[in-house]
Specification:
By secondary structure, the protein is an alpha+beta fold. It has a single domain, classed as Distorted Sandwich (Glucose Permease (Domain IIA)), CATH 2.70.70.10. It is 21% helix and 35% strand. Strands 2, 3, 4, 5, 7, 8, 9, 10, 12, 13 and 16 form an eleven-stranded antiparallel beta sheet that branches. The protein binds zinc ion (ZN). The site of zinc ion has 6 residues, from β3. Zinc ion binds next to β3.
Length: 221
Amino acid sequence: MNRNESKTGHALHLYSMYKPTLYLIAMFFILLLLNSCAVNKSPEATRFRALQKGKIKDDSSYVYALPFAVGTKHRLVQGYFSRFTHRNRAALDFKMKKGTAIYAARGGVVARVKEDGDKGGLDAAYRQYGNNIIINHNDGTRAGYWHLQHNGIVVNVGDTVQQGQLIGYSGNTGYTAFPHLHFIVWKSEAGSWRQIGTRFQTRKGAKYLRPLKKYKRPGKD
Ligand SMILES: [Zn+2]
């Protein structure tokens, strides 16, 4: 009996001695797990992160206009391949109030319009309600503008739009946690659409946008 009690006591003593170390080891593995699970490590995602950090100078690519009014600014709340809902998406989320005017980031022909969605929420089941506009550009790329307001689109399929033209109003429809504009560009390659990163005209020149920063659309002088 005595022996067992002292054994238990000894074990407890050891446990309390090493408790901080065990805690650190557990934290280390949790962080390791979070990192390996949450970050998309594909070559494409890695390239996008390098672009966002300005490590790749890809200066021949088209320069898009920020898709909101001249002189206004919005925060980029999610960038390319981020940990939240963009894990496998090269998309940009601009936080903005419902009803904010959306302008074409690039000219083209309207290929798709959906504006009958009237629901939204942070559940994939809401995805089908996401109002959107898709505009085809003349180089085989197309842009998507998502989560627009119910009946909040002012262009029709087949319309030719110019860069900076009003196309609709932002909302919170579809798979979304808060009112924002989800912007994405794809390029057709070998019969399938591949997501591509795009740079934008900012007050500091043409840049790939970085998450959590606010961007103001510069005016035309
Ligand atoms: Zn998004």
